[in-house]
Amino acid sequence: MYRVDWLPDALDDLATAWLDADSVLRRAITAAVRQVDQQLRADPFGTSESRPEGRRVTFVAPLGITFRVEAGSRSVSIVRVWVVKKRPAQSAAATCGP
Prior knowledge:
The chain is α+β, with helices and mostly antiparallel strands. It has three helices and five strands.
């Protein structure tokens, strides 16, 4: 089991996302935070992808999370959080040529 720490910048990101969200998105953010904590405590490598500078990224809708893993101390530091916005759907005419 790993210890999960939210760094101050990540907590600021989360607070901003929460304050900018409507009630439906707030519920989704709350559920995502719980799921992220559980996943990272159990296995921070299982559902994440590696990134430069020893960082990793995972996505639990509606959040994206960047974090670092210290395997020796079995700790995870969450460094950045953001709300993943869906891209607008393109019409078939916009995606297909003439």
